[in-house]
Design a protein that fits this description.
The chain is mainly alpha-helical and about 130 residues long. It is built from four helices and two strands.
Length: about 130
């Protein structure tokens, strides 16, 4: 019975993540409702940071400023749902994942030692 309950929770989470992704896609595609204006290409850094073999990138979202207040509010709540879903996903994958993540975040926030040392830089790569 417990195994079946776990399966149902996992299925629910997968559906929640899928629905959140679809809703975000719909909101963001709704931005493109008018004729496109020719704007000069600005210098935009897509690559924020790189460590080990991973890259952190950011994206431009053209038309975000044209969203209505209601649409922006929806994007906000969807992002909050994604953050909550992240915690649920962490918890589902391993019993102590949330405690480990919170411990690492606490170390990053309150570490009193030298932050420019090689050890701390290696710790930063690990935590990302």
């Amino acid at each position: 019975m417990n195994r079946n309950n776990h399966f149902n929770k996992t299925l629910f989470m997968k559906k929640l993540v899928l629905l959140t992704t679809i809703a975000m896609s719909l909101v963001l595609t709704a931005c493109n409702q008018g004729p496109k204006k020719e704007t000069p290409q600005q210098d935009f850094r897509f690559l924020l940071e790189q460590f080990a073999d991973l890259k952190i990138m950011r994206y431009q979202v053209p038309g975000f400023d044209e969203l209505t207040t209601k649409q922006k509010e929806l994007v906000y709540y969807l992002s909050q749902a994604a953050i909550a879903g992240r915690d649920i996903l962490f918890d589902q994958n391993y019993k102590y994942n949330l405690a480990i993540r919170r411990t690492l975040e606490n170390i990053l926030e309150h570490y009193p030692g030298e932050r420019e040392s090689d050890d701390f830089r290696n710790f930063m790569v690990y935590t990302k």
